[in-house]
Design a protein that fits this description.
- This protein is an alpha/beta fold.
- The protein has one domain: 4-Layer Sandwich (Metallo-beta-lactamase, Chain A), CATH 3.60.15.10.
- It is built from 6 helices and 14 strands.
- Helix 5 packs parallel to helix 6.
- The longest helix is centred in the last third of the chain and has 11 residues.
- It is globular and about 50 Å long.
- The N and C termini lie close together (11 Å).
- It binds nickel (II) ion (NI) and manganese (II) ion.
- The site of manganese (II) ion (MN) has 7 residues, from helix 1.
């Protein structure tokens, strides 16, 4: 089975690789664009990029139901343990860890990270996944930053970039991010969920196409993209 990536709405994605289901930022309950419910999704791993409610989302409930291993920065992993999540793995920015058939690296992100109850959530992260079929970078919530060039040096097959603006970079800055990251494919996220982050993804895709540095792929919630 090839590695597939499914957009679940907002910043939430499911990656299936090597027979495993990896969720990133599973915000489903309360997400008006959610493609699937927290009660029905399967997970072997959950990666949480930062502490905000629209990213921690349903992590606690899904982890308790599936016993998925939850990967996050040390502060969030500790907080999740205190919420009764048994299977956590704490990391920190710049660190890589080999898991079951893939490697996860927590990258820099320029964003904040307070947890839903006001607890300190450490530094916000992006996520770099190295699978047997290719390298996926989910920038998660972040501003544009020039060190994205270093992430681009990893050789990206797919980059997921926020385009919603207001809380993260917007469409214009994401075009600069494409220049820094030069991924083969770029997928937009973190837009249209709420009125303040409404964007025209097709107009954005036309600009990416015109720029000629990457192939834009706009996924509706529930749609998937297959690596290779
Ligand atoms: Ni956030
Ligand atoms: Mn967010």
């Amino acid at each position: 089975m090839p590695t597939t990536l499914t957009f679940l709405g907002h910043g939430a994605f499911q990656i299936r690789t090597g027979g495993k289901s990896i969720l990133i930022d599973p915000f489903l309950t309360g997400n008006p664009l959610a493609a699937v419910s927290a009660e029905e999704i399967d997970a072997d791993f959950i990666i949480v990029s930062h502490g905000h409610g629209d990213h921690v989302g349903d992590t606690v409930a899904i982890a308790k139901r599936t016993n998925a291993r939850v990967i996050a920065n040390y502060e969030i992993a500790t907080w999740l343990s205190n919420q009764g999540v048994q299977n956590t793995h704490g990391m920190n920015t710049g660190g890589s860890h080999r898991l079951d058939g893939f490697t996860v690296k927590l990258t820099l992100a320029h964003h904040s990270s307070m947890l839903p109850d006001g607890s300190y959530g450490g530094c916000a992260n992006g996520v770099l996944l190295k699978t047997s079929d290719g390298v996926i970078y989910h920038a998660c919530d972040t501003a544009l930053f020039s060190d994205m060039k270093l992430i681009g040096d990893e050789g990206l097959d797919i980059a997921i970039l926020p385009i919603g603006d207001n809380y993260t970079m917007g469409p214009e800055d994401s075009l600069k991010a494409v220049e820094f990251l030069h991924p083969k494919v770029v997928i937009p996220g973190h837009y249209n969920t709420f009125p303040v982050i409404r964007q025209d993804a097709n107009a954005w895709a036309a600009e990416v196409h015109r720029q000629g540095r990457s192939t834009p792929v706009v996924l509706n919630p529930g749609e998937s993209h297959t690596l290779r």
